[in-house]
Each structure stands twice: as structure tokens, then as C-alpha cells.
Amino acid sequence: MHHNTHNLEKLGQKSAAGLGHAGFQLVALLHSAPFLYLLSEITGIWNLLPDPYMHGAGYSIIPPKGKFDVHIDSNADLTSGLIRRLALIIYLNEDWSPEYGGQLELWNEDASRKVAEIEPAFNRTMLMEISETSYHGIKPVVEPSGRSRYSFMAYYNTSGKALGKEMGVHSSVYAPECYRPRPSVRSLARRFTPPIVYDFVREKIK
């Protein structure tokens, strides 16, 4: 996929019509009946419905130092009343190296252990089921020249019963604080110790 950085800066679009020519053509493919059938063949989830209004989807930008803590996605589109089932992500980062950060982290079902990392390499596509155990997060972006991390996302839904509290409908749910990475003793010491003292002590204990 080719992209135009100008279009990537346009957030909060209400439909594919505002995504520029490349974005519009991409959404036409991602929302087409043959592609929906392919997704169902891959996942075993049938009767998938696209979201023509692109709620929470489209181009995504994570700026330098940006990240996402470990969480599960919203399980419903509260505007249409449909149940979210799949998220498809296409990465748009040319010449991206692992040391630039921004990796998608996949965690186990109770968010206590990271099980995989996905590099946001250019044109790599990630398909993820949305469930109550699909915990994931994004590592901080540290690209040295100050570039942001770009991606394109589409959601796929199925119809369900009327939404309500009895169904457990929720927005994004973040993992318990105890599961999030904690700063090390060394990082805390460096944060709160004057540089001249920290450097002196570090030299002494080498």
C-alpha cells in the first residue's frame, strides 16, 4: 500500500470518503464481500459486517514517546449496536527498525505475561480477534529522528442481541496495574538522584 503523510494527519474521519484516494480504495477492498468471506474462512467467524462509518478506525498515529498500556478493545460499536469481532491493522512505517519501538505486544489471557511482539513493519498486516482475553499493548515509540508510528485499522462486527449491561458491553479495559511493567530500582535511583552523585556511585560499584 502507498500512502500520503498529509492524509495520515486527518483523524476522526466519519467515513472512508475522507481518507483520501488511497484510503478510500483500501477500505473498498477491506469492506468487499470477497474479503469478508476470506476473513470468515480464516477465522471461522461468519456473517461479518464492515463498518462504513469507520468508528475508531482509519489512520492511526502514535507520536514519539507515545504508547498504549495493556488492554482489551471495546467489544461493541455503541453507535450501530453491533458486536466487534475482529480488528485488522496494516502498518505504514517504511524503514522501521526494532530499536524504534512501537511493537504490538500480545499478552496471555489474564494479562500477566507477554507472549509475543509484532514489529510494525511496512505493509505488515495483523488480524486480531476481539475478545475478553485478547490483551495487547504498544511499546513506546522511540524513533530517533522523531517520526511517528503509522497504521491503518478496520473493525469487523457481527449482529447480536440488544446492547445492555447484562451483555457486559464495555469500552477498552486496561490490565490491572499490578501487571504493568514496573520501573527497576536502578531507573528509580537515576530518576531521583542528582546526576553527579549517580555517576560517582555507578563508577564505584563497577
TrEMBL record:
One of its GO terms (biological process) is regulation of translational termination. GO terms for cellular component: cytoplasm. The keyword Coiled coil does not apply. Its EC number is 1.14.11.-. One of its GO terms (molecular function) is peptidyl-proline dioxygenase activity. Pfam families: 2OG-FeII_Oxy_3. InterPro entries: Pro_4_hyd_alph_FE2OG_OXY, uS12_prolyl_hydroxylase. Transmembrane segments: none annotated. Keywords: Oxidoreductase. Residues 63-156 form the Prolyl 4-hydroxylase alpha subunit Fe(2+) 2OG dioxygenase domain. PANTHER family: HISTONE ACETYLTRANSFERASE COMPLEX, PROLYL 3-HYDROXYLASE OGFOD1. This is 2OG-Fe(II) oxygenase. It comes from Tunturiibacter psychrotolerans.
